[in-house]
What we know:
Layout: H1 3-27, E1 29-31, E2 39-44, E3 48-53, E4 59-63, E5 69-70, E6 75-77, E7 84-86, H2 87-98, H3 112-122, H4 133-148
Antiparallel strand pairs: 1-2, 1-5, 2-3, 3-4, 6-7
Amino acid sequence: MSTLNYLCYICDRFIRYNFKFNIVMFKTILNIPGKAGLYKLISKNTELFIVESLTDKKRMPVYISSKSIYLKDIAIYTTGEEEEVPLHKVFVAIKEKENATRTFLNPSAATADELRAYLAEVLPAFDRNRVYPNDIKKLLTWYNLLTDAGINDFAL
């Protein structure tokens, strides 16, 4: 095998691995009610999950009864043709707006009007009656956590 062919083979393997890794990562990221941050699913059995925090990499058990939610199952209410837009599509829109970096808006310091204006730029048809400022704050915080963790391919 020539050097050029070998280099192409290595690049192809690297791209495929990273593509699969990011997709699998987004499908295994959890929000645990009552716990701050996001968690990566490490393993599960009939009674509990083992999760790892995206921020400090600490592992902990979480019982199935805690009603953990996969990010792939979350959606944002809209007033358009689609009643809901999946979270990964909103993250893709934020990524395009922010050029794959953290949001310029600090979610914890922003006012309700600033949060609504930001989401209106990203998702103009969001339902202003059912999407609250705390929801937008959580959305932007999650996006920043995922970006900091190196997860920026949000396509399913």
